[in-house]
């Protein structure tokens, strides 16, 4: 009977631990990053400098803020990575209009935020 109680306790502990991990994946993230070049985010030019990048998991929304002012926002497509990122990283694609921000990865998180498929750039021709 004692062994059954102990095994049940171990199983419950594992379940609670895994549930906490699953809930943590839905959390919002906020990091400070320094852009070393001007980039386009959802059609908005973001000048090089230091910004807060926030991710709202409930809305799949990425916000770039300078202080309390939103500089740019974009919907993102969230994809799971095979392991947690070791550092913050930003991915870019060169276009004729400039550098386009395409991916954001936060250190300690296993999600990659993709902006490329959802961004629209208007043609001024």
Question: Which labels suit this protein?
Answer:
125 residues; four-stranded antiparallel sheet; 1 helix; 10 strands
What does this structure look like?
It is a single chain. The protein is 18% helix and 46% strand. The protein is of the alpha+beta class and 125 residues long. The chain has a domain at 28-114. It has a four-stranded antiparallel sheet, with no helix packed on it. Strand 9 (98-105) and strand 10 (111-114) form a beta hairpin. The longest helix has 23 residues, at 2-24. It is globular, with a radius of gyration of 19 Å.
- Helices, by number, come to 1
User: Can you write the helix and strand succession as a string?
Assistant: HEEEEEEEEEE
> For the largest beta sheet, what order do the strands appear in spatially?
1-4-5-6
Beta-strand proportion: over 45%
Query: Mean pLDDT, rounded to whole units?
Result: 79
- C-alpha end-to-end distance: 78 Å
Rg, Å, rounded: 19 Å
Tell me the total number of β-strands: 10
Biggest sheet statistics: 4 strands, antiparallel
Low-confidence stretches: 5-25, 118-125
Task: Give a summary of the structure in a few sentences.
With 125 residues, this protein is α+β, with helices and mostly antiparallel strands.
Q: What secondary-structure arrangement, pairings included, does this model have?
A:
Blueprint: H1 2-24, E1 29-35, E2 39-41, E3 44-46, E4 49-56, E5 61-66, E6 69-75, E7 77-80, E8 89-95, E9 98-105, E10 111-114
Antiparallel strand pairs: 1-4, 2-3, 4-5, 5-6, 7-10, 8-9, 9-10
């Amino acid at each position: 009977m004692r062994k059954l109680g102990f095994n049940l306790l171990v199983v419950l502990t594992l379940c609670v631990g895994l549930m906490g991990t699953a809930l943590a994946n839905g959390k919002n993230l906020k990091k400070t990053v320094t852009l070393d070049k001007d980039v386009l985010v959802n059609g908005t030019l973001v000048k090089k400098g230091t910004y807060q990048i926030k991710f709202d998991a409930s809305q799949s929304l990425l916000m770039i803020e300078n202080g309390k002012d939103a500089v740019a926002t974009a919907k993102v497509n969230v994809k799971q990575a095979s392991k947690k990122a070791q550092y913050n990283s930003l991915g870019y694609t060169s276009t004729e209009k400039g550098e386009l921000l395409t991916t954001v990865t936060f250190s300690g998180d296993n999600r990659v935020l993709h902006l490329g498929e959802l961004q629209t750039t208007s043609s001024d021709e």
